[in-house]
Backbone:
């Protein structure tokens, strides 16, 4: 392996003379001439090999031969035995500097021919060819990054990248930083470390595409600042490959608060109030409020919250409905009253819903009677009373017996209890039998109270009259 070196001028054309004074015994060694190069490589982690070197051995002489690679001080870095071995040397491994390739011919007994020795210390009969220069330039190299690509939805939730790695095996440059740009090369951020990159919330950038890079650079780089463009950088620098981060804008309706609401359908207007929309992260070109029934059928499309709070839910009758906020893009199909939300086609998003329960108790219809009895001391009971509960509604139910002014005389719980009442004991007068349905929380439903004082959500059936006549 080569060491970081640069080669200078070596002794060339050394002629060894034997110990004899006879000129006929002079030994001439000639290394010939080599051609090829010069070569210049960038030290960037990629293999750098020389090619095309040739030896003119027309006048070459000497018992032994080798190729020699030295630094610029003559230190021997390698002794490849042939051209093939020379062209197999990876000069990138030597780092920056300059080295030289030589061809050497020599006679037996040459001392000092070994790696890390200096050619000036060779002792014996030898000759070097001319040299071929190999310049190894150190370049700024940012290496390679891996991870991603990443794709996020811009929805108000934090989006961070994970799993990015930097292969810095061949990274060079005095300084380093991470760079985030948009798709036009504008610098959006300069996180100094990978941990800082992974701490960036890309959701905060809104919709678009950005790129993550690693940058190595030398002192004096100009233009490296947020909102500048990478095309305007001036100095010695190198960017790694990039990792793409796609930020998709999605439709988001936000979050509703308020309610739930419970009303009694009693002919009195019932409006909601106190609904609030958190639209911090609401997105979508268009918006409206939507009121649906519990099957998703659209009952109304009030455009504003004020319009929602102006809706009289009493008019809708009994049932349950839901209030929603909707964001949507142009081209949404099916957004009309009496359509179902499941049939909407397009890009849209509903908020959570606020429930509105519309209670409408129905006491149904009772049949039987009317009844007329004589108050003569003999028990008098009614019979044959029936309840048509086809449309009866309301969480609770009871039977009610009142006088003709509405004062509650009794609260029998079942028809059997009603038909067990002795009306003769009530004395002369008129009373009425009713069936009552009501919701929790009804106030005033006690004996001797008047039905006019009931407070809550309830409904009476029709009544059956019971007339109690005196004995003639």
Residues:
């Amino acid at each position: 392996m080569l060491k970081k070196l640069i080669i200078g001028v070596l002794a060339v054309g050394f002629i060894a003379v034997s110990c004899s004074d006879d000129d006929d015994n002079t030994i001439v060694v000639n290394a010939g001439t080599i051609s090829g190069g010069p070569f210049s490589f960038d030290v960037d982690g990629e293999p750098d090999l020389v090619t095309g070197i040739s030896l003119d051995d027309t006048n070459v002489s000497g018992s032994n031969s080798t190729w020699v690679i030295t630094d610029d001080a003559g230190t021997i870095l390698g002794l490849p035995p042939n051209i093939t071995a020379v062209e197999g040397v990876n000069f990138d491994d030597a780092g920056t500097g300059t080295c030289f390739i030589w061809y050497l011919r020599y006679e037996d007994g040459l001392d000092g021919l070994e790696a890390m020795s200096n050619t000036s210390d060779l002792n014996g009969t030898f000759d070097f060819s001319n040299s071929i220069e190999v310049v190894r330039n150190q370049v700024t190299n940012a290496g390679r990054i891996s991870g991603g690509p990443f794709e996020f939805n811009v929805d108000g939730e934090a989006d961070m990248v994970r799993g990015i790695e930097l292969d810095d095996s061949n990274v060079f440059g005095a300084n380093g930083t991470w760079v985030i740009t948009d798709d036009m090369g504008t610098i959006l951020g300069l996180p100094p470390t990978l941990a800082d990159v992974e701490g960036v919330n890309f959701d905060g950038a809104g919709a678009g595409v950005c790129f993550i890079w690693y940058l190595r650079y030398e002192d004096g780089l100009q233009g490296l600042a947020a909102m500048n463009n990478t095309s305007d950088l001036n100095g010695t620098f190198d960017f790694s490959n990039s990792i793409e981060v796609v930020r998709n804008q999605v439709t988001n309706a936000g979050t509703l608060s308020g309610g739930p609401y419970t009303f009694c359908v009693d002919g009195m207007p019932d409006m909601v109030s106190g609904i609030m929309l958190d639209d911090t992260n609401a997105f979508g070109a268009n918006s409206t409020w939507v009121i649906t029934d519990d099957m998703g059928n659209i009952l109304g499309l009030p455009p504003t919250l004020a319009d929602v709070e102006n809706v009289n839910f009493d008019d809708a009758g009994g049932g349950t409905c839901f209030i929603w906020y909707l964001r949507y893009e142009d081209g949404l199909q099916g957004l009309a009253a009496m359509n179902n939300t499941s049939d909407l086609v397009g890009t849209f998003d509903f908020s959570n819903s606020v429930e509105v329960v519309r209670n409408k108790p129905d006491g149904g219809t009772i049949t039987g009677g009317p009844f007329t009895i004589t108050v003569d001391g003999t028990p008098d009971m009614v019979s044959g009373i029936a309840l048509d509960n086809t449309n009866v509604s309301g969480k609770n139910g009871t039977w009610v017996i009142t006088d003709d002014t509405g004062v509650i005389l009794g609260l029998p719980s079942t028809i059997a209890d009603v038909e067990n009442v002795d009306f003769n004991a009530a004395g002369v007068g008129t009373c009425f039998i009713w069936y009552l349905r009501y919701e929790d929380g009804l106030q005033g439903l006690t004996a001797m109270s008047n039905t006019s004082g009931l407070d809550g959500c309830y409904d009476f059936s029709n009544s059956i009259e019971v007339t109690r006549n005196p004995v003639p």
